[in-house]
Specification:
Layout (H helix, E strand, L loop, with lengths): L4 E5 L6 H12 L8 E5 L5 H7 L5 E5 L16 H6 L4 E4 L2 H6 L4 H13 L3 E6 L3 H5 L3 H12 L5 H4 L3 E4 L13 H19 L1 H4 L3 E5 L7 H5 L6 E4 L6 H8 L4
Parallel strand pairs: 1-2, 1-8, 2-3, 3-4, 4-5, 5-6, 6-7, 7-8
The structure holds 1,3-dihydroxyacetonephosphate.
């Protein structure tokens, strides 16, 4: 049985002052303990998350990291830094990083391997553009990303990876993929994992959907066979919406 996992991706939102307030609110929520919950904050808010969520079941993580442990890499944060503060997750290969910061699959693969080496759970994002979807190239695009980003990962480690299917045309647009389309792509991603690592391992990997997930569509999405969770942007920035998302079963 795969445990559902709902994670907020705050993106570049919340100053430390604002983050402190939101984390205080999140720490007081009555959340379903059957669901794994987490927030991935901007790097500058991570120590606040560590402090304010310490007595809760809400995990925290980063939205990016470099693959090296330390050194002359101005502006980057390392896996050892994240490990040192007790971060659970690191989002890797988000479409915004691929697009605006030119991250390619080779770099993302190094980051995934490094995260696993440091006991961090990578939340590996993949997904197609609208043009690729309209040209029916979405499966090919996602297969290419997943195969390249998971190169060299052992069977033992694959079950620690969370994959987030985020069609780019659904991110921040209010347009959610239909729950059937989202389910079918998450199922397709599971079949890619099965091809690479075997069916037994594929059944253990958790696959999230992301893209305009809101309290009013989370129940339908989470009801689908291949969708094990959600990676949520905008709706994770309000404590009451985050509560409704994590408590989708209640
Ligand atoms: P929205 O939920 O704001 O569409 O963002 C989705 C996303 O990119 C999460 O990583």
């Amino acid at each position: 049985m795969r445990k559902s996992v709902i994670v907020g991706n705050w993106k570049m939102n919340k100053t430390p002052t604002e983050a402190s307030e939101l984390l205080d609110q999140i720490s007081k929520l009555d959340l379903d303990r059957e669901v794994e919950a987490g927030v991935c904050t901007p790097a500058i808010d991570l120590l606040l998350a560590k402090d304010k969520l310490s007595e809760t079941n809400v995990n925290f993580g980063a939205q990016n990291m470099y693959f090296e442990e330390s050194g002359a890499f101005t502006g980057e944060i390392s896996p050892t830094m994240l490990q040192d503060i007790g971060a659970s997750y690191v989002i890797l290969g988000h479409s915004e990083r691929r697009e605006y910061f030119h991250e390619d699959d080779e770099l993302i693969n190094k980051k995934v391997l490094s995260a696993l080496d440091h006991d961090l759970t990578p939340i590996l994002c993949c997904g197609e553009t609208l043009e690729e979807r309209e040209a029916e190239k979405h499966e090919e695009k996602v297969r290419g990303q997943i195969e390249a980003d998971l190169e060299g990962i052992s069977n033992e480690d694959i079950e620690k990876v969370i994959i987030a299917y985020e069609p780019i045309w659904a991110i921040g647009t209010g347009k959610t993929a239909s729950s059937d389309d989202a389910d079918s792509m998450c199922g397709y991603i599971r079949s890619i994992i099965a091809d690479k690592f075997g069916e037994e391992y594929a059944q253990k990997v958790r696959i999230q959907y992301g893209g305009s997930v809101k309290p009013n569509n989370v129940v339908e999405l989470m009801g689908k066979e291949n969708i094990d969770g959600a990676l949520v942007g905008g709706a994770s920035l309000k404590a009451e919406d985050f509560e409704s998302l994590v408590n989708y079963n209640k």
